[in-house]
Amino acid sequence: MEENAIRFGIIGCAQIARKVSRAIDLSPNSTLYAIGSRSIDKAKKFAIDNDFPDTVKIYGSYGEVLNDPNVDAVYMPLPTSLHVQWGVLAAEKKKHLLIEKPTALSVADLDLILEACRSNGVQFMDGTMWLHHPRTTKMKEMLKNTQLFGPLQMIHSTSTFSETEEFFKDNIRVKPDLDSLGALGDVGWYCIGAILWATDYKLPKTVTALPALSRNQEGVILACGSSFDWGEDAQVATFYCSFLSNVSMDLDLYGSNGSIHVKDYIIPYQENSLAFDLTRRTHFAELQTGWTAKPEKVQVAAELPQEALMIQEFATLVERVKKYAKTPDDKWQEISRKTQLVLDAVSKSIELGFKPVGL
């Protein structure tokens, strides 16, 4: 850890906060300074369960973390329904904001958070970890190589897992008052984000939800999918997300000369070495008895897990603002906003009975 490491406060003791607190510890330019929960007992238990050092401040409210003058940045893994309230307040307290996805219940809500961040000169980023790994950079390099890959034509993404009866009874992600977007917000965020990443965040012309929709008794989405169309660009995409299917984290990219397939793009099989399959200029063998080439496995290593790389990049941006008075990097605001905008369109298409929604 650097001497002038960015000091993080965490507000909320969600399970994902365990992973991110470890990432803060692993990142060389950050340190965990404070943790806050709705009660001091819950915060203390979280600290003990995760072996936090005695130097970490323990608070019995979110507001105490935000009021601590030594906290530079906050990580916010709260239920989505609380993001506007605490995200805006964090920005007003001049705390740089790393917020869990989905960033908000709607793009209108997200705009309130983003405006607060802009007005107060603080860095914003959402917690999409896979974007920060060198594998993602390597895949983008190959996508950009038109001789290798050709024009991008089709994208397909999935993010699914099958949960227990306890999850469907008690988890905040199936509660309409806490995370009313359900699977669409939780795992669909990754699918939509991956599709937009592949297209350099060019918004589709049309979004059409697929009829394969499941909800719980309270109306929260448990599984859904959608198709995207870019019109004259001749690109299409599909995704499927679910709390009801076996684990899948597929991203398939198809070009005229090649294709890329990755089966663990959100959470890798192993955190120290990631891979994807590249198939290029492949044809059928004589008599169509096989292929002329097998997929090539491209291995990409990194010194840190992707979540620690996210923390490191965020802390670097915070340091630029804090130490050198630089303007926050608004690239991350744009990425989150476009993802939220498309997510809203999928939700609207579902409400309209799976009719197309223009963007």
From TrEMBL:
One MF annotation (Gene Ontology) recorded for this entry: nucleotide binding
Q: Where is the GFO/IDH/MocA-like oxidoreductase domain?
A: 138-260
Q: Name one Pfam family in it.
A: GFO_IDH_MocA_C3
Q: Which InterPro entries does the UniProt record give?
A: Gfo/Idh/MocA-like_OxRdtase_N, GFO_IDH_MocA-like_dom, NAD(P)-bd_dom_sf
Residue intervals of the Gfo/Idh/MocA-like oxidoreductase N-terminal domain: 6-125
Family recorded in the similarity comment: Belongs to the Gfo/Idh/MocA family.
Its recorded name reads Uncharacterized protein
